[in-house]
Amino acid sequence: MTQNQSKNQTPQSKHWLDKVVDGILKWQEKTGIKQLHVDDMKTPSGRVHTGALRGVLLHDLVAQVLRERGLEPDSTYVFNDMDPMDGLPAYLDETEFSQHMGKPLYRIPKPALDKCGIDLSQTSATELADLENAKNFAELYAMDFMHAFRALGCTQQIVWSHELYESGKMDALIRLALDSVTPLKKIYQDVAKYELPELWYPFQVICPVCGKVGTTLVTGWDGKEVTFECQENKVTWAKGCGHKGKISPFGGNGKLLWKVDWPAHWTAMGVNVEGAGKDHSSAGGSRDMANAQCEKVFNIPVPFNIPYEWILIRGAKMSSSKGVGTSAREFTKLFPPVVGRFLFASRNYAQVIDFDPNTMAIPDLFDEYDQGARIAWGLEAGDQRLARAFALSQVGKAQQKSFLPRFRDVAMWMQHPELNLEEEFAKIKGEALNDLEKALLEERVRYARIWVQNYAPAEYQLQPKAVMPAEAKILSEEQKAFLKELEILLTEKRDLAPADLQQAIFDLSKNSIGPRKAFESIYLLLLGKKAGPRAGWLLKSVDNNLLDQRFKGIANL
C-alpha cells in the first residue's frame, strides 16, 4: 500500500497498523526527529514463550509499514543477556545450574541440547547447527527464539546487551546515572511511589570473584570507581560470596539496574519507537519510570509507545520459566509462516489474542487468512482490513492468486483413505489444480496432520490412537463376536484391495449382525466413534501391528 492509498482509506476501513504509523509520523513531525529507530527487547532466561512473539511481530510490522511510506527506519531487537539468572526453569537440572544463579546470562554455560527443554524433533538441520554452535546459555535460548520470529518474516538486527556494555557505548550513560542518584531517587518516589534506601546506586557490579551480578550492592562512587559488596543474602534466589572491593563500572564490569538500563539502552542506540506490554505500561510502571528518566536524566525525547496486549494460550498467561504454555518456536510450527504472521497482523495491538489450538482456532484462522486473500485478489467483497492483514503477512514472494483448499476440509478428508484430495478439491475448483495449488494442498495436509494428531476436537480425529479407546467398552457381545470373525477374514485376505475389503465386510455382516452394527463395531474399536471413513480403506490404512493389538484387546473389554 502506498502513502496515497493509505490517505484514501476511511478511518473505518483503515488497518490498525496504518493508524499506528500515522500517529508515529505526526509525532515525528512534532518532535523534529530525523531518523526513526524501532526497537524491542527480551531477556533470554530460558525457553521463550509465545507471548514474546507479540512484541517482535508488532515492531517488525510497524517497521514494514514505515518502509512502505518511503522511510528507512532502523529496526533492532535487543537480547538483555547481561541480566542475572534469577529463576531456574523447571526443565533444567537444579544440581547443575543452581550454582549459576545470579550470574549474567551470557556468562552461564549452555545446557546439553538433550536437556535444554527445546523440542529438537521440530528443528531443521540448520537450526540444530545454530543451537549446537551457541556459545552460552543466553545465546542458546535467544537462538531458539530467533528461529521462531525469523520464520515469521521478522528482519530486526540483533543487538546483544553485553556487547553494548563491553564496547563502551554505555560508559557515558553509566557515569550520568551514577552522578544522578538524587534525581533518579525522586523519579522513583514521584512516579512509582517507591522510597529508595539512603545508600543506593543504579548500578550492579559483576563480582570479579564469584562472577555474580544479582548479588552485588554498590556502596560508593568517586567519579572513577565504585565500591561494592557481593552480599550473601541480598536476594533469595542467589548467594553472594561476601567479597568487597573497588572497580571501574565501565567496559562491561557491570550493568545498570533494569528500570534505568531500559532508557539508557534507548539513549545509547538512538531508539525512538518502542512499545511495551500492558504490564510495563500501567500507571507508575516501568514505562512511566523510563519516560521520566528520558526527560529528567538522559535528555532524550520519550520514545513513541504502543502499549500492546498479551497473547494467551489456552486462556492463561504463559510462563517460560515454569514450562507452562507453548514455546514460541513450537507455536510457529502450528501453521505456515504467512498464516502465523497473519494472526498478529489481523489483531489490533490493544486486543488480547486468546488462542487455544485445542479448539477450532486453527481452522478458523486459516479461513480468515483465505478470506483476506480473496478480498485482496478482488475475488470477493469484504473488510479491506483483512486484505491489508493478508498483504502484510506475506513472507518473501507474495502468494499468487490461486485456489485455496479449505483447511478444515483438508483435515477431515485426509483421514478418509478412500479419497483422492487433489481430485476432491479439483471438483470444488471446477478444474484440475495447478502446480502451485498442489504444493499448497501438500502444505496444508502437513499442518492439518499436526492439528489432528495433537489438538483437534474429537469429532475431527478419525485416525486410531495408540491405546484402546474407552468408548470401545460399549461394544455388545454380538459385536465382539463379529470382530473376531473380521479378524479371521483380515488374516486370510490381507491382500484385498480397499473396495473389495469393503464388500467382504458387508457380505460378512449380512450373515451375522447386519451392516449397521458391523461397521459401528469397527469404528468403536479403532476410533472410539460410531462412524468414520469407509471401513475398507480405514482398515487398510492402519498399521498391522496396531490392528493386531486392537483385536487382541477385545478380550479385555
Task: Itemize the secondary structure elements and their pairings.
Layout: H1 3-8, H2 16-31, E1 37-42, H3 52-68, E2 74-79, H4 94-97, H5 125-133, H6 137-151, E3 157-160, H7 161-166, H8 171-178, H9 181-192, E4 203-205, E5 216-221, E6 226-230, E7 244-247, E8 254-256, H10 258-269, E9 276-277, H11 278-281, H12 286-298, E10 307-308, E11 311-313, H13 328-332, H14 337-345, E12 353-355, H15 361-376, H16 384-392, H17 407-413, H18 421-429, H19 435-454, H20 477-492, H21 498-510, H22 515-527, H23 535-541, H24 544-552
Parallel strand pairs: 1-2, 2-3, 9-10, 11-12
Antiparallel strand pairs: 4-8, 5-6, 6-7
Helix pairs in contact: 2-3, 5-6, 9-12, 10-12, 15-16, 17-19, 20-21, 20-22, 21-22, 21-23
